[in-house]
């Protein structure tokens, strides 16, 4: 069929369909997109006929209007079109008219997964897309080398104001160049340019150079259409002195818009603030800013902070630099500093264009002001104005995740992984799927990234986490070892290995790994090792040693100013004393929790402190005070924005109060109200373990052996959710032994008692459960 129009690359096919290349490859795999190859190998050059693709679109979208979205959940087991066809085309399967109607519904549902409605990401299909490569330094001066990236970053920032152009972000550009081994390239071949366009999913590439003669500077650029390589624009700008570069960038941006065939009306209605207004008018401050951004994007946050501080010392009104400082500090868990820098960025954000202003406002409301509804509003406004601001999707997903709106968080993060793939986005997308209990799906998400970038330690460790959640510890260790081969010095590998050994039951190897971290000179690494040993000794009933380590870690967090970690350490200490009959020791820790929560202006943490205070009153028998604390807790929760989820803390406290009064049925009713509010296991959530333990104890005292057994067995299936309360995990063996003994199953009772003693064989002296188990076991063995 030589007379037909041909699309001769994935890039042209993707452009024709208005989708990314990755999506088009998925269309071929799952929906039969008619793509041909010159050779019968997956890597062969591809081509397609427009006529065949048009016919495929008509056929595939034929059923699109038959059904509403909501029915999809009823057929969750049908993952793609192929499995649907296999279902309805089984031999001897008789399909009635009703079944055919259902089949049509399912077909639409399946198709709609791959053809999302336009309002999910409303990007105009005909918008030109652009990547601005690092410029070539033709000045011959080393001090001008930083302008290679600075010019690219500045032009990206300037063109980002346009609503009629899709510009590849600086962070995405860096990841693309790194993947293609072009990060340090001083110039680019035609093949390099096409590879960047293909990987980034853009149809234009801008290249340029900077030259100098005396005090005169000249910027030249060439704009190419890809894949043809046709030059659609080129020009030069000249100026005197470094201060002229900003005005040349503004001039270049206007020329590029015209080169991309934007109409006069589009150009005139585009917001076009001068680059100096968006960033800074001080070239030296701008130099430090670009250098700091480079370090931040590489994950070298401390270096970024050092040079970014120089930028704001030169220009104290540099809003974008303060925002970058805030993000770098938060990445290092320096929350107090991060908050101060973010407040400063927010105060100065009025001078910024909409894109940058709404981003900073969203961050401020989310992280500093804790007004999460305002944060969502800011991010949603930003996305509406600039639908390709992928970072806003990411932050908005985090915000919905805070409210445990996992479906919305997943939808938003899928947009990020599709359009601006970065390892952190894949990790969070996988994590949100884990919270819904979809561990295998989460692993597929991570595997998709590894297939493209096989040497990412973060992703490999997260794959290991999904195996741990399914208690496949050997496969988890395989992933950790693969990460170790890539970077043997990464301390998170050692930490992960320690936890996997511990969950697997190999406490000796776990102790070896955690002890190795404890030998580090880095206080945070040392604290990480001590935290692992804290749990291990708690699991083994070695409470004195565990408490010593708690104090060491707490002192480290206080010295480093990590108030978030400090708060949760006091929380763990308080509950430790409450659980083991030492309420008087818990009082000071609870008061410290309340003080820290108020100092940090964190209402959620204050509610946790109030919950702990209620538990203290239960343990001391002051049930009236416990009831007052519960009433205050409920009021504060209902005033907040996350009442639907946080009420589980109120139900847990009320369950404890009713249990203490002997009202077993009412206690169970409260616990069973709260239990569905917990997400599936994904990261440490000690509340779920405490909740289940309280429920199991009520069932036990009420003589409901079967329900008590189910609850204690659920605790034994936990991995990360028993992170900090290993003692309760160990005691579950003891309680299950008691249940089996009550039911007359002495063999099973002995097995549980022996497992308990194996864990607590070196426990502190005087623990009642240990003595009781020894006595019971001796009696059972005699009989």
Write the layout of secondary structure elements.
Layout: E1 6-7, H1 10-17, H2 21-31, E2 36-37, E3 46-49, H3 50-60, H4 81-88, H5 97-114, E4 129-132, E5 136-137, H6 147-159, E6 166-167, H7 170-179, H8 190-200, E7 204-213, E8 216-225, E9 230-240, H9 245-259, H10 264-269, H11 275-278, H12 283-297, H13 301-314, H14 319-331, H15 335-347, H16 354-368, H17 372-385, H18 390-402, H19 406-419, H20 423-435, H21 439-452, H22 457-469, H23 473-486, H24 491-504, H25 507-518, H26 523-539, H27 543-560, H28 563-579, H29 583-599, H30 603-619, H31 623-639, H32 643-660, H33 664-674, H34 686-701, H35 705-716, H36 726-742, H37 746-759, H38 768-782
Parallel strand pairs: 4-6, 4-7, 5-7
Antiparallel strand pairs: 1-3, 2-3, 7-8, 8-9
Helix pairs in contact: 1-2, 6-9, 6-12, 12-13, 13-14, 14-15, 15-16, 16-17, 17-18, 18-19, 19-20, 20-21, 20-22, 21-22, 22-23, 23-24, 24-25, 24-26, 25-26, 26-27, 26-36, 27-28, 28-29, 28-30, 29-30, 30-31, 30-32, 31-32, 32-33, 32-34, 33-34, 34-35, 35-36, 36-37, 37-38
Describe what this molecule looks like in 3D.
The chain has 38 helices and 9 strands. It has 783 residues and is an alpha/beta fold. The protein folds into 4 domains: 109 residues, no CATH class; 150 residues, 3-Layer(aba) Sandwich (Rossmann fold); 208 residues, Alpha Horseshoe (Serine Threonine Protein Phosphatase 5, Tetratricopeptide repeat), CATH 1.25.40.10; 207 residues, Serine Threonine Protein Phosphatase 5, Tetratricopeptide repeat (Alpha Horseshoe), CATH 1.25.40. The strands form 2 sheets. Strands 4, 5, 6, 7, 8 and 9 form a 6-stranded mixed β-sheet that branches. Strands 1-3-2 form a 3-stranded antiparallel β-sheet. Strand 8 and strand 9 form a beta hairpin. It is elongated.
């Amino acid at each position: 069929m030589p007379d037909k129009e041909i699309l001769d690359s994935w890039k042209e096919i993707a452009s024709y369909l208005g989708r990314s290349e990755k999506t088009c490859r998925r269309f071929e795999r799952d929906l039969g997109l008619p793509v041909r190859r010159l050779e019968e190998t997956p890597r062969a050059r591809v081509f397609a006929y427009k006529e065949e693709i048009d016919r495929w679109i008509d056929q595939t979208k034929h059923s699109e209007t038959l059904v509403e979205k909501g029915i999809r959940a009823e057929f969750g087991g049908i993952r793609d079109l192929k499995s649907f066809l296999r279902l309805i085309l089984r031999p001897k399967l008789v399909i009635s008219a009703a079944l055919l109607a259902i089949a049509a519904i399912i077909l639409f549902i399946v198709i709609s997964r791959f053809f999302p409605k336009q309002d999910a990401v409303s990007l105009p299909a005909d918008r030109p897309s652009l990547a601005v490569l690092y410029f070539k330094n033709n000045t011959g001066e080393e001090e001008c080398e930083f302008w290679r990236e600075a010019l690219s970053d500045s032009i990206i920032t300037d063109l980002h104001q346009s609503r009629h152009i899709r510009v590849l972000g600086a962070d995405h550009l860096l990841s693309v160049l790194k993947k293609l081994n072009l990060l340090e390239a001083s110039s680019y071949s035609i093949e390099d340019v096409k590879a960047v366009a293909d990987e980034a999913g853009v149809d234009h590439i801008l290249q340029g150079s900077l030259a100098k003669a005396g005090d005169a500077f000249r910027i030249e650029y060439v704009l190419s259409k890809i894949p043809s390589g046709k030059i659609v624009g080129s020009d030069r700008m000249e100026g005197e002195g470094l201060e002229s570069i900003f005005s040349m960038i503004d001039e270049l941006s206007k020329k590029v818009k015209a080169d991309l065939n934007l109409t006069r009306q589009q150009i005139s209605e585009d917001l076009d603030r001068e680059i100096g207004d968006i960033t800074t008018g001080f070239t030296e401050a701008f130099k430090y800013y670009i250098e700091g951004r480079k370090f931040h994007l590489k994950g070298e946050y401390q270096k970024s902070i050092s040079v970014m501080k120089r930028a704001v010392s030169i220009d104290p009104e540099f809003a974008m630099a303060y925002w970058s400082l805030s993000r770098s500090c938060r990445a290092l868990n320096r929350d107090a500093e991060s908050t101060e820098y973010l407040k400063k960025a927010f105060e100065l954000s009025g001078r910024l264009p909409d894109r940058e202003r709404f981003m900073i406002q969203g961050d401020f409301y989310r992280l500093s002001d804790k007004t999460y509804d305002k944060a969502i509003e800011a991010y949603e406004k930003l996305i509406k104005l600039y639908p390709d601001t992928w970072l806003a999707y990411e932050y908005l997903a985090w915000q919905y995740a805070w409210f445990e709106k996992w479906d919305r968080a997943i939808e938003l993060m899928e947009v990020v992984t599709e359009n601006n793939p970065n390892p952190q986005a894949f990790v969070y997308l996988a994590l949100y799927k884990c919270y819904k209990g979809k561990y295998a799906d989460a692993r597929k998400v991570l595997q998709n990234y590894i297939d493209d970038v096989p040497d990412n330690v973060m992703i490999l460790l997260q794959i290991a986490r999904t195996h741990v959640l399914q208690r496949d510890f050997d496969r988890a260790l395989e992933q950790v070892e693969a990460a170790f081969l890539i970077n043997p010095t990464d301390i998170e590998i050692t930490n992960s290995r320690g936890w996997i050994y511990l969950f697997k039951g190999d406490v000796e190897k776990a102790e070896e790994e955690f002890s190795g971290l404890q030998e580090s000179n880095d206080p945070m690494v040392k604290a990480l090792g001590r935290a692992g040993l804290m749990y291990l000794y708690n699991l083994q009933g070695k409470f004195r040693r565990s408490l010593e380590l708690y104090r060491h870690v707490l002192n480290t967090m206080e010295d480093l100013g990590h108030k978030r970690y400090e708060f949760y350490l006091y929380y763990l200490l308080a509950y430790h004393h409450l659980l083991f009959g030492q309420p008087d020791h818990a009082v000071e820790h609870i008061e410290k929790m309340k003080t820290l929560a108020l100092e940090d202006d964190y209402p959620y943490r204050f509610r946790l402190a109030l919950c702990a205070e209620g538990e203290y009153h239960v343990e001391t028998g002051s049930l009236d005070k416990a009831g007052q604390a519960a009433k205050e807790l409920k009021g504060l929760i209902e005033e907040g924005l996350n009442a639907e989820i946080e009420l589980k803390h109120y139900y847990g406290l009320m369950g404890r109060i009713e249990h203490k009064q002997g009202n077993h049925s009412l206690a169970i009713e409260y616990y069973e109200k709260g239990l569905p509010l917990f997400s599936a296991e994904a990261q440490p959530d000690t509340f779920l373990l405490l909740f289940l333990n309280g429920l199991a104890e009520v069932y036990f005292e009420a003589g409901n052996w079967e329900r008590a057994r189910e609850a204690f067995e659920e605790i034994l299936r936990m991995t990360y959710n028993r992170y900090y309360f290993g003692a309760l995990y160990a005691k579950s063996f003891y309680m299950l032994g008691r249940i089996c003994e009550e039911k007359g199953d002495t063999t099973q009772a002995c097995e549980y008692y022996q497992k308990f003693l194996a864990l607590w064989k070196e426990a502190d002296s005087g623990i009642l459960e240990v003595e009781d188990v020894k006595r019971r076991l001796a009696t059972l063995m005699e009989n």
